[in-house]
Design brief:
The protein is of the alpha/beta class. The chain has 16 helices and 15 strands. The strands form three sheets. It has an eleven-stranded mixed beta sheet, sandwiched between helices. Strands 4-5 form a two-stranded antiparallel ribbon.
Length: 481
């Protein structure tokens, strides 16, 4: 039997290699993951349900194939779903919903060999950079149980950081892969728009802002996973240019000498914690030591116009989602079935006209032109991932009575002023755990690439992982502790 210390010392490809060499059985990995959940979930509250019978049957009943054959895996209860697996979307309105089929991405995760062990928490309908629901309670950060694990993929972030699994599904409409990666000391890649399939339920969810993928511990797991799940599904609205070679091959290639822009100043003009500034500045020094050219520069755009237009998109999408869930479950949107701020966003979204939504989407085109011109001069752009280290639990309260929808949007984006732009432009971006604060909290650094150019990002990320490795950084709440 693999000990939890041994189990958590491998990334996903490492565990799959043990299976391929017959040094361990997939069933042993299932038992290790279930043991890890039992040990830690009472502390971190990240896993909502486990699927022991299904996972054991998958491990025992068929020949495992794919690059992640037998590797334990968890999915976030939002957008993506698995056949016959409850998907509550973090809210009472949706509670008990059981999908009748896998989404295309779930089917690809299975074909990659990942073995579904259970589901993880999301904030209500994903509109929160922390994961604290009225229905299920807060997810606790393994680095400090009094702090947020980020959102909206906070449950997945805590699962991977604590060693319960090496990979977990996540999605990102304003930073929701990169935020928990920063808060939990992980790799969080948001691929280019339409790189990852979202069918059959969605074409471009959240009007193209939302992207599906995962959080991982290593760059190579992110690259290998991207190789096996990327590509359009039937009837997809679009797809970026396919890569010239596999992403796993890309990370074996030196990035060359890159021209890299960086900033620690958000377009919002808001305050950024000194630790987040230090994280970027130390990364810039490292990049210069590695031979890259760095320039302090950033795209210039109107923050208030951006905020108001993204607010229209988020609230109208929330309104549509709530109405669809209400039809599916037979429940009515109210303070009983939704948290107070979610209900305010729903009501705000219902009042916007179609022309207002189209104008908001058109603003995204303007932003894409601005950043596209900016990236004519730079290969990569670097910022803090979020404005400060993980927030204390309770600060970003989605059930706060009396808060307007716009007040909520402003509070959310004040906490995460760097990530959302690249949901609007569709560019790939990755958060890397390159810095720890004075009180041992992870602080992520965001790297952004040109549209469709995950290859450059992953090559640079792999170089930074080698130069400043993070594998030995483990939180106090960990399966090996």
């Amino acid at each position: 039997m693999l000990s939890l210390q041994e189990y958590s010392s491998y990334d996903g490809l490492g565990l799959a290699e043990l299976v391929a060499k017959k040094q361990i059985k997939p069933s042993e990995l299932v038992e290790a993951a279930l043991q890890a959940v039992a040990k830690l979930n009472p502390k971190i509250n990240a896993v909502l349900q486990t699927l022991p019978d299904k996972a054991r049957a998958t491990a025992d009943g068929q020949t495992m194939s794919g690059p992640f054959a037998g590797v334990p895996f968890f999915i976030k209860e939002l957008v993506l779903h698995a056949q016959g697996v409850r998907c509550d979307s973090g809210c009472k309105l949706a509670q008990g919903f059981v999908p009748e089929q896998d989404t295309e991405l779930m089917a690809r995760f299975r074909r990659a060999g990942l073995n579904l062990l259970g589901t993880t928490q999301t904030p209500e309908l994903g509109y929160n950079p922390t994961t604290e629901t009225r229905l299920f309670g807060p997810v606790h950060n393994p680095w400090d149980l009094t702090r947020s694990a980020g959102g909206s993929s906070g449950g997945s972030g805590a699962v991977v950081a604590s060693g319960i699994a090496p990979i977990a599904h996540a999605n990102d409409g304003g930073g929701s892969i990169r935020i928990p990666a920063s808060c939990n000391g992980l790799v969080g890649l948001k691929p280019t728009r339409d790189r990852i399939p979202t069918g059959p339920d969605y074409g471009d969810p959240l009007c193209g802002l939302a992207i599906e993928f995962a959080v991982t511990r290593t760059v190579r797991d992110a690259a290998a996973l991207l190789d096996v799940v990327a590509g359009p599904d039937v009837g997809a609205p679009g797809h970026p240019v396919p890569p010239a070679r596999s992403f796993l091959e890309e990370i074996k290639v030196a990035p060359g000498r890159l021209r890299i822009a960086w900033t620690t100043k958000p377009a919002s003009g808001g305050k950024i914690d000194s630790e987040c500034i230090a994280a970027v500045e130390s990364t810039v020094r490292l990049l210069e030591e590695l031979g890259h050219t760095t320039v302090e520069a950033a795209p210039s755009y109107d923050w208030e116009a951006f905020l108001s237009n993204v607010h229209v998109i988020w609230t109208t999408f929330t309104a549509m989602s709530v109405d669809q869930i209400a039809v599916a479950t037979g429940r009515k949107p109210s303070l009983d079935s939704l948290e107070a701020v979610t209900l305010a966003c729903y009501e705000d979204g219902k009042r916007f006209a179609a022309t207002e939504l189209l104008n908001a989407m058109s603003h995204g085109n303007l932003l894409s032109r601005i950043t596209g011109n900016f990236f004519n001069n730079y290969d990569v752009f670097i910022t803090p991932t979020i404005a400060r280290p993980p927030a204390p639990l309770g600060e970003l309260n989605q059930d706060r009575r009396g808060m307007t929808a716009m007040e909520w949007t402003r509070q959310v984006f004040d906490y995460v002023p760097f990530t959302p732009l690249f949901n609007s432009t569709g560019q790939p971006a990755i958060s890397l755990p390159l810095y720890w604060s004075a009180n041992n909290l992870p602080v992520g650094v965001q790297l952004v690439g040109r549209f469709g150019d995950e290859a450059t990002l992953l090559r640079l990320a792999a170089q930074l992982e080698t130069a400043r490795p993070w594998a030995n950084h483990r939180p106090p709440v960990h399966v090996a502790a």
